[in-house]
UniProtKB/TrEMBL annotation:
Gene3D superfamilies (alphabetical): 3.30.70.360, Zn peptidases (3.40.630.10)
Lineage, broadest ranks: Bacteria, Bacillati, Actinomycetota, Actinomycetes, Kitasatosporales
Keywords: Carboxypeptidase, Hydrolase, Metal-binding, Protease, Zinc
Known cofactor(s): Zn(2+)
This enzyme's EC code(s): 3.4.17.11
Broad class of enzyme this protein falls into: hydrolase
GO MF entries: carboxypeptidase activity; metal ion binding
Full protein name: Glutamate carboxypeptidase
Organism: Streptomyces nymphaeiformis
Active site: 104, 165 (proton acceptor)
């Protein structure tokens, strides 16, 4: 898409503001990295939420703070939803944009003291520095420079910060779906890939428990009276794994197998935990149907299998609408001196939930980072000014739907 002539000086102005904001960005990032905010560290996540809320309110966002029920037996932090009205009505071309980041990390309490925020040349280190505190702070920085530039040509900006993304967002997912209602576009703030690419697609995931029920018998005296659930489960493992390669972009994995309790009893029960990942809803449906079909035909006489879906998250599909968003981002990138492509990933994030509501979604709009979920996690702070300017300019471009 060709940019209107006014956009070149706008991009340059936003880049200049972003460079001027760099020291503040690093201060904010260091402050957040110093807080232990693992998914199950509710108090730590809420300390991050306090800082994010204060930042949004300084920018004239109204902020809703939503307490959540326990997830997976643990207390989680709160969700934040910040909203700021622009000066364009939807009827006049204004668009509602959702920005999404998460406040939790994968690290236990004590990690921030053990590996405090540090800078070594252009690389920042510390727990969550890339995933996702670097992206979270980039989103706040982009909002700040837009406000500094007086840019309000949008209908509404919505800033979503979740507390449990690293454990699959079991508690926050309904709130995320509500925040996505009415949005025209969504920009997810996970950091860009190590080569600078954005994320155009994420696989969806569904988890299943397959319970195989057989019949116990004395393994030495009358084994013929038994029906061996372990044997049926073994055949089922082979059948499920053999489904790999049937559909493009679909993988199945039997991750856990449990069976039996004693040497001398014909095994009466077994359990399989199976994961399906798919790039498309249609692939997910096809694989689920095939899994259920395999379970309906146990090989061992006298056994039966029940299938229970434990959790699911839709794919963030590579769509024509998300490709158009990518094209607009790439046009802005060229004007800022950036070149990047887009990639698909098997990892799941809040972008999946948002895209599952039908909102065109683009992810990876934070700075460049890598080694997520490891002690070596890093963020290239030299990429921050251009990436924050890219995000801010993309918000301005998409928010003014009159240029669609």
């Amino acid at each position: 898409m060709s940019a209107p002539p006014r956009q070149q000086p706008l991009d340059e102005a936003l880049l200049s503001l972003s460079h001027a904001h760099q020291a503040r960005y690093l201060e904010d990032l260091a402050e957040l990295v110093a807080i232990d905010s693992g998914s199950y560290s509710a108090d730590g996540v809420n300390r991050v939420a306090d800082l994010v809320r204060a930042h949004l309110e300084r920018l004239d966002f109204s902020v809703e703070r939503v307490p959540l029920p326990p997830a997976q037996g643990h207390r989680t932090g709160d969700v934040l939803i910040g909203r700021r009205r622009g000066r364009l009505a939807v009827a006049d071309g204004g668009r509602r944009l959702l920005l999404a980041a998460h406040m939790d990390t994968v690290f236990d309490d004590g990690a921030a003291a053990e590996r405090p925020f540090s800078l070594s040349g252009p690389l920042a280190h510390g727990p969550g520095v890339s995933d996702d505190k670097g992206g979270l702070v980039a989103g706040l920085a982009a909002l700040e420079i837009l406000a500094s530039a007086g840019i309000e040509d949008y209908a509404e900006l919505v800033f979503l910060a979740t507390p449990d993304e690293e454990i699959g967002s079991p508690a926050s997912r309904p709130v995320t779906r509500r925040a996505a209602e009415g949005a025209h576009y969504a920009l997810a703030l996970e950091c860009a890939r190590e080569n600078g690419d954005l994320v155009i697609a994420r696989k969806g995931v569904a988890d299943f428990r397959l319970t195989v029920t057989g019949r116990a018998a004395h393994a030495g005296i009358e084994p013929e009276r038994g029906a061996n659930a372990a044997l049926a489960a073994a055949h089922l493992v082979i059948a499920v794994q053999a489904l790999n390669g049937t559909w493009e972009g679909v993988t199945l994995n039997v991750g856990v197998v449990r069976a039996g309790s004693r040497f001398n009893i014909v095994c009466p029960e077994a359990e399989l935990l199976v994961e399906i990942r798919s790039t498309t809803d249609s692939g997910m449906r096809a694989a689920t149907a095939a899994l259920e079909e395999a379970a309906s035909r146990p090989v061992v006489p006298g056994t039966r299998v029940t299938v229970e879906e434990l959790a699911s998250c839709p794919p963030m599909e590579d769509t024509a609408a998300s490709r158009r968003m990518l094209g607009r981002a790439q046009d802005i990138g060229v004007r800022l001196g950036l070149t990047f492509g887009a990639t698909a990933t098997g990892g799941v994030g809040d972008a999946n939930t948002i895209a599952g509501t039908g909102v065109p979604t683009l992810d990876g709009l934070g700075p460049v980072g890598g080694a997520d979920h490891t002690p070596e996690e890093w963020l290239d702070v030299s990429t921050v000014p251009a990436r924050v300017a890219l995000l801010a300019s993309l918000i301005a471009d998409l928010g003014d739907g009159r240029s669609d």
